[in-house]
Write a structure and sequence with these properties.
mainly alpha, Transferase(Phosphotransferase), domain 1
């Protein structure tokens, strides 16, 4: 099992505990699981709400395994559509389709920043 120190720190906070994609599915976790967790945090940073909603941990876990989050353009239309694509790819259920390493996400985010002149947007 490969889980980064940052994900373990986030896992101590109940809000992020369930964002380790693949946990409990019988599949071995690998670094791409961390990328899913990072995508969940990016989603919340940009939208102002958690990617997977539910009143109980079981409902949230079911959402993580079976549902896609609300598309960002529906929550924050001012965000670039490419940002939704990047975060959506990080949150892919199939880790073969997800970003394969952190460099992939970093490259996509840097490309978006240079293409769009992206600046910080409040999640309020």
């Amino acid at each position: 099992m490969f889980i980064s120190k940052a994900v373990l720190i986030l896992a101590k906070h109940s809000r992020y505990r369930l964002y380790v994609a693949g946990a409990g599915t019988g599949k071995e976790l690998d670094p791409r699981s961390d990328l899913f967790s990072f995508g969940a945090v990016l989603y919340e940073m940009t939208s102002g709400q958690t990617a997977f909603l539910g009143n109980t941990a079981a409902i949230v876990y079911k959402a993580i395994l079976n549902r896609a989050p609300i598309p960002l353009p529906g929550l924050k239309p001012e965000l670039p559509p490419k940002l939704d694509e990047i975060i959506g790819k990080a949150l892919e259920k199939d880790r073969k389709v997800r970003h394969q390493n952190a460099t992939d996400i970093r490259t996509d985010l840097l490309r978006l920043k240079s293409d769009k002149g992206l600046t910080a947007v409040s999640a309020k």
